[in-house]
Each structure stands twice: as C-alpha cells, then as structure tokens.
Amino acid sequence: MATTYRVARQTARWCRFAAVTVDVVASSRDEVVGVPEGVYPDRLREAELGAWHGLRALPAGSGPRQVIIRDIVATDADTNIGDIHEAAARAVWQAPDVAPRPAYVGFGDPELVDLWLRDRIGLHLTAVTEARYWYEGRRGPDADSLLHIWLHFERGAPTMLHGRGDELLLSVEEPYASYDMDEYGDVRVGPAEAPDLLAGIVGARLEDAAVILGLFGGPVCAGVRLRLGGAEVTIATYGDEWTLARSDLPGGAG
What we know:
Layout: E1 2-10, E2 15-26, E3 31-33, H1 41-56, E4 65-73, H2 83-93, H3 110-120, E5 125-135, E6 138-139, E7 146-153, E8 159-164, E9 167-172, E10 179-180, E11 186-191, E12 206-213, E13 221-228, E14 231-238, E15 241-248
Parallel strand pairs: 3-4
Antiparallel strand pairs: 1-2, 2-4, 5-6, 5-7, 5-11, 7-8, 8-9, 10-11, 12-13, 13-14, 14-15
Helix pairs in contact: 1-2
C-alpha cells in the first residue's frame, strides 16, 4: 500500500515543502527502485538517498524491504536541499509494520551535502548560532564546549550541523532554546561571538566549498571546507568531537 509523507513548514523568513510517496514491501534484499515521470534527476537522487537512509535505520529484525518511489512533489521556491530526503525516509517509516519509528537526524550522504553546498555558493552567511556546554559558569575553549552549529545563509532556512561519531549530519531546523541541567551545568544557545572561530566569518560570501570524507567505513561526510571572506574554514567531527580550523588565503580580505 502506498504511503505519503509531507514535509511542510512556513515561518516569516523561510518555507519547507516536499512530499514523497512510496510503497514498502517485503523482499529478499534491501532495494530502492522507481522512476517517477517528470522528476528532475537531482530530486529523484535525493529521494533515493532518503529511502536508503530510511531502510538503514529500520529497527533490528525488520527484514529486508523493497522501496518503490511512486511520486515526488517539490517546488522551486519552497523546497530546500534535504526536504525530499527527509520526506522519503519518513515515508519508509510509515509502513504499517514499522515500529518503533526511527527519529530523523539529518543527512550525511556526501553527494547530498555537496548539492547543499553548491546551492549556497554566492550567498552571504548572515549569522552563525552555537549551542555550548557550560558548567559552574564556565565553558571550555572554542571546539571543546561546542555541541551544535546552525548556519544561516541569506534567503534560506537555517541548517543545523551536528556530529555523530565520525559523521557530520545536516538538518533544516531552527535553533532550540537554552536549557538547564541542574547540577550538571547548562546548555546556552546564541550567536557565535569573538574570539570563537565561526564568529569571524559572519557576513562573508561563500565563494567555494568542499565535502570532507570520513576515514572509515562507507562514504560519509565527516566535515565541510568553506571558502569565504578571504579565509578557508574547516568544520568537521571525529569521534564525537568537533574540529574547527581557519587559514587566511593570500590576498584575501579576511
């Protein structure tokens, strides 16, 4: 039986929309098939990657499945890179016998991260939001206290960067609120501030970018390298720890 999941949200600053319809059936092996008519190749590929993400996250013992992509609906104005991926993954999890349904944590497929980066080349980074761990009124140095990062590019939804082991995951979502953990400290969420590294690139235009591949296992994104404002900035995760680095380019304005 076909199932459809819609990602749909609108704020005063940005919109999200994508709808993916799939059939999920028992099979001898995990497989994603289907070529809906009139769908752009990039959108079909994103749906395929999302369906594979959905299959890999199924609860243990679920057995192999075949996912048949029946339809993809998106718009040029409101669909962000990642929206179709999420809709496809969640559509797979809507199959009647999937329980419990996994939580969606974002995308880390190198080719999809590459598309996300390319989509932002030429745009200005208008803000960076950070979530940091504090204990007894103190926090560690830049990368040590960092939990999550949100990059805000002009004319687009904020993108959250979070590390899972050696994989960098991206998801479209607003920053969450600061919260207290009683005797264990607190998490403070707010704009990146000097002298922290990412504060120094706010307002710069993204000139070029590249995906940093993971060192182990299958092809995953471990980080990104951004060229903006006369500098090259690296944001990566290794073993659940952030790595931040900046190098100023010859002749750059940064």
